[in-house]
Amino acid sequence: MRGPVSEGDWRGVVRDVRVTGHRVTKRATHGRDKLLREVAWLKALPPKAVGYFPRVLEVRTGEGWAEYDMDFCPWPDMSRVLVDGTLTVDEAISGTRSLLGFAFDVLYADHHRPAPEDFFHVSYVDKFWRRASAGRGMSERFDRLCSAEQLDIHGRVYPSAASLMRELQRDTVLLARLRPPCLGRFHGDFKYDNVLFEPATGRFLLLDPRGSTVTGDSDSDYMEDLAKLRTCTRGLYDLVRAGAARVSEGEGRISWEWASWAGPALQRFSALDAWLVDELSVKARARRDADWRVRLDVLMPLLLLANAPFQLAPVNPRTEDIALVLHATGVRLLAEALELHGTRDLGVSP
Ligand SMILES: Nc1ncnc2c1ncn2[C@@H]1O[C@H](COP(=O)(O)OP(=O)(O)OP(=O)(O)O)[C@@H](O)[C@H]1O
Ligand SMILES: [Mg+2]
Description:
Blueprint: E1 15-20, E2 23-28, H1 32-43, E3 56-62, E4 65-71, H2 78-84, H3 89-107, H4 119-134, H5 140-147, E5 150-153, E6 156-159, H6 161-170, H7 172-178, E7 184-185, E8 195-198, E9 203-206, E10 219-220, H8 222-233, H9 237-241, E11 245-250, E12 253-258, H10 263-286, H11 292-307, H12 317-341
Parallel strand pairs: 5-12
Antiparallel strand pairs: 1-2, 2-4, 3-4, 5-6, 7-10, 8-9, 11-12
Bound molecules: adenosine-5'-triphosphate and magnesium ion.
């Protein structure tokens, strides 16, 4: 079912998570409807999936707010242990293998609904433009980066995100390949900061499902989840969020260096990413999903670009650095994806 298109509640969203004894309470004020969709989604899970998500114990709502209680889970957040090195590469791979096994066998088992003709456009192209305009006016630094016609990233000049998107919209051959073969249940925010993981047993708990697409539809392309996961392994989302990128910028130019403490984590993410792509190739082929790689490569940067302005709540030099790096990474990876899979010349300068 499609609901109203909304950019949600992303600006000024007030959400909090409190732990009291063995209970965790997740509360939302501006994001009330989104939280209630999350609850509805959790309650409608098929029996096989139930143990992999928090159990909703109680829901309370009032005017302008909603909250729900769940059991406290003592396992560490996978993003944190990947960044700080508590988790080895082997443990991270084995955890991700279990996560994907569950996702493919249970969560994505119902992917049978044909995708509407305009699915890619409505879900990702329109969202890109809405987010681009909603993100304007919050931070001068971010605005400057987004409005530059071309972007020099680490010495290489790329078209702006908007130009890349226009190029993508003109590439009808590529757009046809981006339409997913079918739709079904998906998590919606499938990244490591939403996974609690116990390395000793390999058990995990998946938090924070979106439960629906930007259009309010409960079904999407399973590749959206996997592209989200790859914003971590290839887009280095968790490392950037942890403040590991030291930014230097100028007019239409950005570069960054990684803090020295981030070196081992960069290696871990790189190994994990190489493994992930191999694993996805096996799993997607088993589903006879011929164009999986095209969708993965294009969706991942689109998700980074859509997420970047989210980081600006609240605006400060640290959150600005995070938003800038995520945006620039999105530009670079989108340009690379279009060069690889697009049928038109982009003109990226060496
Ligand atoms: N049941 C739980 N047990 C232990 N820790 C939890 C639990 N639920 C949430 N947390 C902790 O709180 C953090 C935030 O929770 P969650 O991801 O659900 O919300 P959020 O990311 O703030 O929400 P949103 O992305 O919708 O703004 C998690 O990363 C995790 O560390
Ligand atoms: Mg979360």
